[in-house]
Design a protein that fits this description.
This is Type I-E CRISPR-associated protein Cse2/CasB. Helix 2 (22-30) packs across helix 3, helix 3 (63-79) runs parallel beside helix 6 and helix 3 (63-79) crosses helix 7 (147-157). The chain has helices at 11-14, 22-30, 63-79, 93-101, 108-119, 124-140, 147-157, 163-174, 193-199. The protein is mainly alpha-helical.
Length: 201
């Protein structure tokens, strides 16, 4: 695993939800959804990653830039309409999704299915698509996430040999393989997570 080199603090680390520019910055970044890295000029100022061999402009976007681009878009969706910053160090993806599952907002089985589809994604595009639905649900319950770890995971997912390691990490966090026992939960409303995600603004 190669740690991503970047300049200064990531956007999500320094983002202030109370600043005057917060809404405009998030709106500019959301325009990057389904766009290639670098295609949205409004996002340029928010990129922090150091891209090796930037002169190779005829090639596909570097995985480091692709990972940051996707993470910025996901963060902008997560942060929308939130009064507190949705980046929280140490709250890895598996842990955050475990909290979502136990939040009594969606059917646990439906969350399990969505997490399963994400974890078995065959490529980065498919992974991000499933992840965006889950992020919409995390936003619904105001559950923060460690975006420093997420950008690293998305970067490493570009290398197929790294995916088993990432899946194991997500699984151990989501299903509490560490040995900690989940507390008993009251019956959650039988609301399908897939449909609920589609209804979010």
């Amino acid at each position: 695993m190669t740690t991503l080199e970047h300049r200064g603090r990531w956007f999500w680390e320094s983002f202030d939800p109370t600043s005057r520019s917060a809404g405009a910055d998030l709106a500019a970044i959301r325009k990057g959804a389904n766009k290639a890295p670098g295609d949205v000029p409004g996002m340029w100022q928010h990129y922090r990653v150091v891209v090796p061999n930037p002169s190779q402009q005829n090639l596909e976007p570097h995985p480091a830039l692709s990972a940051e681009h996707a993470t910025l878009v996901i963060f902008s969706l997560h942060q929308q309409s939130q009064n507190t910053r949705m980046h929280k160090s140490g709250m890895t993806l598996g842990k955050a999704l475990h909290q979502l599952k136990k939040a009594d907002k969606f059917s646990e089985d439906a969350v399990d299915r969505r997490v399963n589809r994400m974890a078995t994604a065959g490529d980065v595009t498919e992974l991000i698509e499933h992840l965006r639905h889950l992020i919409s649900q995390l936003r619904t319950v105001a559950q923060p996430l460690d975006y420093n770890q997420l950008v690293q995971d998305l970067h490493d997912w570009h290398r197929p040999e790294q995916r088993p390691r990432i899946r194991r990490a997500w699984g151990s966090q989501y299903y509490l393989w560490s040995g900690a026992k989940a507390t008993s939960d009251s019956d959650a409303p039988e609301q399908d997570a897939d449909g609920a995600a589609d209804s979010n603004p």
